[in-house]
Amino acid sequence: MVVLNLVLLLTVMERESAASTGSGVSNREGVLEKMLEEEMTKRREAERTIEELQKQVQLLEKEVLRLRHVYKSKKDSASITTMDPQDTTLLPACNITCTENSQAALHAENDRLRQFVRRQSALIDVLRRQKVLLEASASITISARDFNKQLELHKV
User: Which residues form a coiled coil (predicted)?
Assistant: First the structure.
């Protein structure tokens, strides 16, 4: 668009310079040169604005990628640990139900693991009792043997 304006201005300048001579031509050329300079400054400003906007777009794209990475890491860590309700500010509204579902699944997993720990503790208690009983039976066996030896000594 700006390039077309510049081409039109140059063609107008050439026509007017060929058609007229003298001081009128120099005035026309001065006016056209000023218009050309104004168009060039407008073009430079537009290019600067475009560059600034492109930089802002790039920064925003980087921010979006960073937020996606943060969201993904939060989502991955949610399967390992429970999330605080205060940390859900980064999650979009549509994923709140997904978060609630994952929290419910984590709560169920927590209950299941607690039940396993209780069963394991009960089994450990059973093993301890069996150990005590084995030690008692071993000591009874030893004392019975000693008693038999003592009986044999007294028989002689």
Answer: 36-70
